[in-house]
Write a structure and sequence with these properties.
This protein has 385 residues and is mostly helical. The chain has 2 domains: 1-187, MFS general substrate transporter like domains (Growth Hormone, Chain: A); 190-385, Growth Hormone, Chain: A. The chain has 18 helices and no strands. It is globular, with a radius of gyration of 20 Å. The termini are far apart.
């Protein structure tokens, strides 16, 4: 129920705001908990494994999202997800325990995935085809902005260790409450068709039709997690200090913010597959130059920023491509699969990045990313429409 006073345009901007606060909470938790655990002398390996709780939550929740959405509609899914996030954030100061905090991270992963799944599916099923790229680009841009601003909350630790959790929880409640001004709706009117097929069969159908559009989601998850989780270790071995790395790593996110919307507009005019092929090629070139000139700080700033401008939009472009390929009744299943492959990429990025640094110490870490992008490029070039 609730008050419903906004138009379709107002609903879109409320969904965009909810996505940004989801990105904000994720962007805050990764560095904040890592810094707190490091300060308490927790082993770096355990610290890194602890960070996977968020993505484990996403994977646990993914298979069970579609049926509740079909029965309850978009708004209840977003309401439950938002409540999980802000309640979990408020519980962090209650008890400082590794396992307790890990459980809270898993719960936030589940809540964030419900927020993403609800908003993502609502936007993709209601966006007009001629402006779909722009709409989904704004979705990606809002998440990127939130993710980039989240780490700023770590500065509040100086005042009190619990303050970042409390402030972020209050911000989440404020933005989350806006959803009560939006009228509930359901993903499709094709109810008969949905009821006649099982969830598993819809996942298989969505995967068979749109598997090519899932690869950018995996690639983005791998890339983002490897840059945030593995590159700092590699950067320290190159001789860069923590202060320089803390400035260098956000260059990728800043680059993606600059071009997210223009690339979405370009994909509306030029086509999703062609735009994806173009940005993946330029991203591979950028990371190749990063590998060659990695001992130069200025060169790394430039190449990582350029890479962010090109491949920082992979997730939103892949989502637009998937929406073009799938019929409306398969979009919920498609969005679930996209979340799953993104999570798998996010978990595997730091893992393979660590192995690469350990067993190939004489080869630049950036070549691992170049290999990933080269695989994506070949797949896009040889996939027939």
């Amino acid at each position: 129920m609730g008050i419903t006073i906004v138009t379709a345009r107002g609903r879109f901007w409320i969904l965009i705001a909810i996505v940004s606060i989801s990105g904000f909470s994720q962007g805050m938790l990764l560095p904040l908990i890592a810094i707190i655990l490091e300060g308490h002398g927790v082993n770096s390996t355990i610290n890194g494994l602890h960070a996977t709780g968020l993505y484990i939550g996403i994977l646990l929740a993914s298979p069970f999202m579609e049926k509740p959405l079909q029965r309850l509609g978009f708004r209840p899914i977003i309401v439950i997800g938002g409540a999980l996030v802000f309640v979990s954030l408020l519980l962090f100061p209650l008890w400082q325990s590794l396992w307790f905090w890990f459980v809270l991270r898993v719960l936030i992963g589940i809540g964030d995935h419900m927020l993403h799944f609800g908003t993502q599916t609502w936007i993709t099923t209601t966006a007009a085809k001629e402006t779909r790229g722009r709409s989904i680009a704004l979705y990606g841009l809002s998440f990127a902005l939130g993710f980039a601003l989240g780490p700023l909350m770590t500065r509040l630790i100086v005042i009190h260790e619990t303050l970042p959790f409390i402030v972020s929880s209050l911000l989440t409640i404020f933005v989350w409450a806006l959803i009560f001004f939006v009228k509930n709706s359901w993903p499709t009117d094709e109810g008969q068709r949905i009821q006649s097929t099982s969830s598993f069969r819809r996942f298989v159908q969505a995967g068979r039709i749109a598997w090519i559009a899932m690869i950018p989601g995996f690639g983005y998850g791998f890339l983002e997690a490897a840059l945030h989780g593995t590159f700092p270790i590699y950067g320290l071995r190159l001789g860069y200090n923590v202060e320089l790395l803390s400035i260098l790593i956000p260059c990728f996110a800043i680059g993606s913010i600059i071009t997210q919307f223009p690339l979405g507009m370009l994909s509306d005019r030029w086509g999703r597959k062609r735009t994806l092929t173009f940005v993946v090629f330029l991203g591979a070139i950028s990371f190749s130059f990063a590998a060659i000139f990695e001992t130069s700080l200025l060169a790394l700033f430039m190449t990582i920023s350029l890479a962010g401008m090109f491949v920082g939009s992979l997730f939103s472009l892949g989502m637009s491509y998937m929406t073009d390929l799938l019929p409306s009744y398969l979009l919920p299943a498609g969005n679930i699969l996209l979340g799953i492959v993104f999570s798998i990429g996010s978990i595997s990025g730091p893992f393979f990045g660590g192995l690469f640094i350990q067993f190939l110490p004489g080869i630049s870490f950036f070549y691992l990313i170049v290999i990933l992008l080269a695989f994506m490029l070949v797949t896009l070039l040889f996939k027939r429409d």
